[in-house]
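Reviewers of the previous submission asked for a worked example of the structure-prediction workflow described in the proposal, so we include one complete record here. The input consisted solely of the amino acid sequence. No template or homolog information was supplied to the procedure at any stage.
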Amino acid sequence: MEAYVGVDWSATQVVCATAVGESRVRGIQGASPTLENVRDLIRRVRDRHPEATEVVVIVEDGAPVWANLFHAAGARVYVVDPKQARKFSDSLCSSGAKDDKRDCVTLAELGRSPAHRPAQFRPDEPIVAQLHVLGAADCEASREFVRCQQQLRAVLRQYMPVVDQALKDVTSRWVIKFLRTFPTPAHFRGLDRVTFEEVLRGSGAHRVSRDVLWAAIEQTQAPWLDSATADIYSARIGGLLDRVELMSTQVTRIAELLNDTTAQFEGRALLESVDGIGPKLAAALLQYGFGSEVDHRDQAGIRMGACPVFKGSGTTTRGVAKGHASMRRAAHPRARRATYLIGRLAQQRLRWAAAMYAHGRAHGQNAATAYRRIARSLLRILTAMLRARH
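From that input alone, the workflow returned the following structure tokens.
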């Protein structure tokens, strides 16, 4: 016999309700997010239901720490999609009232319904857990890196927009050197070409880039910019350049760690053998699409969000399905982003993908839908390649 525990979580505690067999669901004191407290909760559940041989915990998705804590405490854990839990709650009663206690009861009742329980929760293998951490870090660092560049350019446009246009990449070594030496028009007043060339010597700046920048400097004048204000701008530019260099280092380091981690997967070389798939996309595919196993041909597409969800039932008198297909939003956002990139790169590099894109656009599909359609086909090919190991 099983004791069912519905768990509604927050960052600092959980609210729980238990049931066994066909008995009424009752509340029980929750726990804080420590292994000792969670073990104490499982012990109290067993004391309340001594006839139960196993404790089954049903918890909503969104906080992996709780699922891992309950698993480590010896419970059998099921992680439920919040949308599924809400729809199941609607099937239990017509009331729209919602609070923590009602949510716990709903989850405990869902646990008693085998047809509604998802696959049992299993902790990620160490290699997959590493990919999750690195993937999240890469996404966050890349986003912050772009934000730092945008902030730097926003400041440059305030007092030397022509120079800003001449600097194509504010993360390159020679641009950073130039901005640290001449952060404002006040700093390059009276500057001659010989001194300019001397400052950029050995920085890696191409001749054409130096010519374009020098032309921009000659056109930039800001006589209203006094020395005190220029020093303030200089300090601000220096701080932004520090952040750009820091985030550049972090992005590079994370990319190296991703490369070293994914090298442990046998299928990485096969994935990268497809034109357009590099180390980062291969890491996303291994993390979300394939992992340590290769199964049904569409499973990778489902996990990556490439396979659509059809909403509707039945057919019309002409045999056309009633309803519509929509994007699979239950897939992880990073997986969906990787799917879009895979479809777009395939369309640019593979002839059959370009033909599929043209066909989809001609029949009314938007670009994103056409890219996901291409990605779904490519993921099926990759699944077959990984199965056959060639």
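The chain has a mean pLDDT of 88. We consider this example representative of the routine output the project will generate in years two and three.
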